Hints:
The protein has 184 residues and is α+β, with helices and mostly antiparallel strands. It is 30% helix and 17% strand. A hairpin with a 4-residue loop joins strand 1 and strand 2 (134-138).
Amino acid sequence: MQRPKYFTLFQDEEVPDAFADLMATFMKAKQQFSAKKASVYNAQSQMLELSLAGIPSLVDQERPKALGGRAQVATPSYYPQTALPVIEHPGMASRLELDTLFYAFYYQQNTYQQYLAAKELNRQSWRFHKKYLTWFQRYEEPNDITDDYEQGTYIYFDYEGAWCQRKKADFRFEYQFLDDGELA
């Protein structure tokens, strides 16, 4: 019996004739598996390429710039052209959820809405930290209180990262960074 060409792998070894058919079947299965493996690899490679296309860039981590003046955009005349008076009402902020207050504070810069949001956040025992530019609230009574700082567990609003509240244990809140501006 003449051996298949696959036996060139076994140059010095003798493979019994009884295994010749098995070897041919094995080599065929190996080729099919290799082809399937290559197609799976190509599919995974394409998925990775697509996911990398949407990866955040360095610009995405920058803090939003303060808007100087808002650009006027032409909108259809049937769209509301002026803000509803209820938005300017001081009592409206007390009805808003926390996320909305933070949004108004961080994205409605230099507006009356930012002022109302800050006033309401203060009313709800949130304090603005001038160094970290974020809002903090006591989670529990501080462990240590001096004339210059208090230290304990606080909740802070992570507006740059995940837009959520996070807990910070053993945080030292120095009073020099407390925004004690009067929000009458």
